[in-house]
Design brief:
Layout: H1 2-16, H2 37-40, H3 48-60, E1 67-73, E2 76-82, H4 89-104, E3 113-115, H5 118-132, H6 136-151
Helix pairs in contact: 1-6, 3-4, 5-6
Length: 177
């Protein structure tokens, strides 16, 4: 069941990573469009290690960020930030927004995903360590399966009841009087 979910999630990620050509309508001059399209275009990542270090250094420069873990796969980056555990949730959200704002101004960070979740950040650290050891796919799939294992609930119908064996291998002890 778990491996089936992992396989489905990986297939979904691969299918969702395709690029779609969308034709803009001539009447799409809304307030959402920006004048500088060269900065907003998603740049292909050729050197993942260099982009990883670049995005991590951008995130480290934001006040309140204590540590950064970054994983780059394909043209997507996930940036996990470590902040003081004693901070209020609203302050953590402000720091996370500041990191996202700093990354949005960068050609590689414009489409990065920023998280301040401690568990996800630790998983990113483990994926990064597995990548450094030469196991990028295995590290990614192991951590992804752990994340899915925490998300997917345990259903009572899927629990198999174990029946104790009817006979035991150890002889019963006789009581002596």
């Amino acid at each position: 069941m778990r491996s089936l979910l992992v396989a489905m999630l990986i297939i979904g990620l691969l299918a969702g990573c395709g690029t779609a050509k969308k034709q803009a309508s001539p009447h799409s001059n809304s307030y959402h469009t920006k004048s500088n399209t060269a900065n907003n275009a998603k740049q292909p990542i050729r050197d993942a290690a260099a982009v990883k270090e670049h995005l991590a250094s951008l995130a480290r420069n934001v006040p309140g960020v204590r540590g950064v873990n970054c994983v780059v796969f394909g043209n997507t980056a996930i940036v996990g930030i470590d902040v003081d555990a004693k901070l209020e949730r609203s302050r953590v959200g402000t720091i996370k927004y500041s990191v996202a704002e700093a990354l949005s101004k960068d050609k590689y960070g414009a489409n990065a995903i920023v998280t301040a979740d401690m568990d996800i950040n630790e998983r990113l650290r483990e994926i990064s360590a597995a990548t450094k050891q030469g196991h990028p796919i295995a590290g990614f799939t192991n951590e992804l399966s752990d994340i899915i294992g925490r998300i997917v609930p345990q259903l009572p119908n899927s629990v198999k009841q174990m029946q104790p064996p009817s006979h035991t291998e150890n002889p019963k002890m006789k009581k002596s009087m």
